[in-house]
């Protein structure tokens, strides 16, 4: 029997924060307050918020996580009533089971979209809730460039910040320049 203590597809939710409370509820994680994504798509490499929606990026998938969902219904008198389950993390839906990222540092966002690089497919991806998911590398004619230049240690390495034992860095990092409305991505391959 092996006791599994690592749950790399699990998202934990803290208690709800209340102003003026004596203890910080955001530091309290209850035992059963979690949501597991499908493990066949790899570990969760990044969680990011866009338009008050949480997106989970796994190696081979992109999921939308339902956080504190609410539904408004109207009764017979026309009075709106807000319904909820009481669960902070209720469910998730996959936006794609083919596109994801292994490089947590490749994920960045603008005011309207999330950008990341999928090393498995060699694609630069843009995710916008108004426009959907688009493969920028295909739209901008970069598919051959990425296929030819994203090989070697960058395929498995995801540490563009720290030097590895050989003194080299491997991985992808990105940022969004809000002043010039540009996404910038750096590929470190040794």
Brief summary:
With 190 residues, the protein is mostly beta strands. The chain has helices at 136-139, 143-149; strands at 10-12, 34-36, 44-50, 53-58, 62-67, 71-74, 80-83, 89-96, 108-109, 114-118, 123-128, 132-135, 170-177, 182-189.
Describe the strand arrangement of the main beta sheet, using strand numbers: 3-4-5-8
- Individual helix count: 2
What coarse outline follows from CA principal-axis ratios?
Answer: globular
Strand-pairing-aware structural class: mainly beta
Give the mean pLDDT: 84
Describe this structure in words.
Strand 4 and strand 5 form a beta hairpin. About 3% of the residues have low confidence. The protein is 6% helix and 39% strand. Strands 3-4-5-8 form a four-stranded antiparallel sheet, with no helix packed on it. Strands 9-10-11-12 form a four-stranded antiparallel sheet. The protein has two helices and 14 strands. The termini are far apart. It is mostly beta strands.
